[in-house]
TrEMBL record:
N-acetyltransferase domain mapped to chain residues: 13-182
The keyword Cell membrane appears for this protein: no
Gene3D superfamilies xref list: 3.40.630.30
Protein name: N-acetyltransferase
Any GO MF annotation of the entry: acyltransferase activity, transferring groups other than amino-acyl groups
């Protein structure tokens, strides 16, 4: 059975499930208007952040009914952002494709942390979950986000003009993607199982 072993440790970061105590760190970035400009929802209040951390504490488990993995990204004991893997969407319900996303605190921008965390969760998607394709949807004017995709080696596969009504305006949409057979490394990709779980190790 494929598993995502947590925490995922990279050169500088630890990716783990959210837990009580993360609220102040998450509020520091989720309450900033410029951070949520391209993601659903308004800047969060402290109460909303408390709910979000509580929800995400359980969103670390990949299950058929709730096929997503949301991980806190920790740098030296501080949660500086979060990354998301959503095993649903373009791929339907077979779990063989995954959408990824990311949100980081502005004060840590420009040091490659988002790319490092996105690379780690993408690698887990291919090597541990066994997905066939990882994709991201974004507004092309969010160039910081498209640059993360490009640093991961993702290809821009589609551009839709004024195709989404988002935050009271029509916005362009771009789709970036990379397949398992294109992902660097030569380890065989495991076969996906009907039952996907996460384990803390
Ligand atoms: C999208 C977002 C995560 C990108 O953040 P970012 O800081 O630009 O991305 P990274 O952390 O990967 O840093 C990349 C930058 O660090 C530099 N860098 C320094 N060291 C690096 C390293 N070791 N590896 C990679 N890049 C490095 C890169 O050159 C790049 O610099 P540049 O912006 O001058 O080109 C951030 O803007 C964000 O959270 N935005 C709000 C939420 C959002 O819009 N999410 C996406 C919705 S689709």
């Amino acid at each position: 059975m494929p598993r995502v072993r947590l925490p995922i440790t990279t050169e500088r970061l630890v990716l783990r499930s959210f837990r009580p105590g993360d609220e102040d760190d998450v509020f520091a970035y989720r309450s900033v208007p410029s951070v949520v400009r391209y993601i659903p929802g308004e800047p969060k209040t402290r109460e909303q952040v408390a709910d979000l951390v509580a929800e995400r504490a359980t969103a670390g488990r990949i299950e058929e009914q709730s096929p997503n993995l949301t991980l806190a990204v920790e740098l030296d004991g501080r949660v500086i952002g979060d990354v998301l893997l959503l095993l649903d969407g373009l791929g339907g319900r077979d779990g063989r494709q995954a959408e990824i996303g990311w949100v980081f605190a502005p004060d840590v921008a420009g040091r490659g942390y988002a790319t490092e965390a996105a690379r780690a969760i993408t690698d887990a998607a291919f090597r541990e979950v066994g997905v066939h394709r990882v994709w991201a949807e974004l507004e092309p004017e969010n160039t910081a986000s498209s640059a993360v995709c490009e640093r991961l080696g993702m290809r821009r596969e589609a551009f839709f003009q004024k195709a989404s009504w988002f935050k009271e305006r029509w916005t362009d949409l771009a789709i970036y993607a990379i397949r398992a057979d294109e992902w660097s490394g030569d380890q065989p990709v495991p076969t996906v199982s009907d039952e996907l779980t996460e384990t803390e190790s």
